[in-house]
Amino acid sequence: MERAMRKIEDFYFGDEDNTGEQMFNTFAKKYANLFTADMKVTETENKIEHTLAYQEFQHLFESKLDELVCSEGLTVEEFFKLLQSNSKDDEDCRVFIQVLLSVSDYSSFVEMMAAYCEQNQ
Questions:
Q1: Positive or negative CA dihedral for 59, 16, 71, 100?
Q2: How far is residue 84 from each of residues 10, 45, 50, 98, 117, measured CA to CA in Å?
């Protein structure tokens, strides 16, 4: 489990090629025309193009997460069960879970897209 966590952390926070940031920037460049720098979540909730972009983003990151976990000989289900059981006594597991949840949150996605638009106008 710890090796899988390290791989996921390296993916999310690394500076090399094929990191989460690079993946997000490539994705954001493709979909930036759907978002604005000052966009709020409430402006996107009922628009199908934002929902579809979010779903594609989730699929990209979930696929990479699956790949990283499975490369350590675990199924995704096993990995999450281990995280859950260890989170009771391990602060690192709790923080790790929060990071995973924040990446999958729709409002965080909209904020990240808005930030990308602001930085790349």
A1: negative
A2: 21, 30, 31, 12, 35
In which residue are the tokens 């979540």 written? Answer: 41
Contact 6, 13 (CB under 8 A): no
Sequence-distant (6+) residues with CB within 8 A of 12 are 19, 20, 21, 99, 103
Sequence ranges of the domains in the chain: 1-120
Architecture in CATH for domain 1-120: Up-down Bundle (1.20)
Tokens of residue 71, six digits: 């490369």
d(CA 99, CA 61): 13
Q: pLDDT (tens digit, 9 = 90+) per residue, 49-83?
A: 999 999 999 999 999 999 999 999 999 999 989 99
